[in-house]
């Protein structure tokens, strides 16, 4: 975030027309705002749909109440919370018209989710076996380059 603030400040100072359109938000900022709303919406719908199955920590042991959620938003997106956070994160930089940080945030968050999904899906396959394999085969993550 420090880089984002630094980029915004430097570009506002050196290239003030890049950040504003005569005091109005430019179309790029509106795209960023739409990304933020979409990303936050996906994440919240995923949380509500999964209920107690949604956590911020990767489960390494299956609870008795743990179930594979593959209805609602999970019918279309395998990890809506991660996809939502990815879109939201990049959207914050698009809103600010921070081209360097837009790319930087996209790369850093992509790498984070690539590594996290590798671990999380390992445990999901252990917990749910063939049921998860079939679900993963038919439901994409929609995160670029992560099937």
From TrEMBL:
EC category name: transferase
One Gene Ontology biological process: methylation
Record key words, sorted: Endoplasmic reticulum, Membrane, Methyltransferase, S-adenosyl-L-methionine, Transferase, Transmembrane, Transmembrane helix
This enzyme's EC code(s): 2.1.1.100
Cofactor note: Divalent metal cations. Probably Zn(2+).
GO MF entry, a single one: protein C-terminal S-isoprenylcysteine carboxyl O-methyltransferase activity
Lipid bilayer topology: Multi-pass membrane protein
Cellular compartments annotated: Endoplasmic reticulum membrane; Membrane
Protein name: Protein-S-isoprenylcysteine O-methyltransferase
Cofactors that this protein relies on: Zn(2+)
Swiss-Prot/TrEMBL catalytic activity: [protein]-C-terminal S-[(2E,6E)-farnesyl]-L-cysteine + S-adenosyl-L-methionine = [protein]-C-terminal S-[(2E,6E)-farnesyl]-L-cysteine methyl ester + S-adenosyl-L-homocysteine
GO CC aspect terms: endoplasmic reticulum membrane
Protein species of origin: Gonium pectorale (Green alga)
PROSITE patterns assigned to the protein according to its UniProt record, in alphabetical order: SAM_ICMT
Cited PANTHER family: PROTEIN-S ISOPRENYLCYSTEINE O-METHYLTRANSFERASE, PROTEIN-S-ISOPRENYLCYSTEINE O-METHYLTRANSFERASE
Transmembrane spans: 25-42, 85-108
Family indicated by similarity: Belongs to the class VI-like SAM-binding methyltransferase superfamily. Isoprenylcysteine carboxyl methyltransferase family.
Domain of life of the organism encoding this protein: Eukaryota
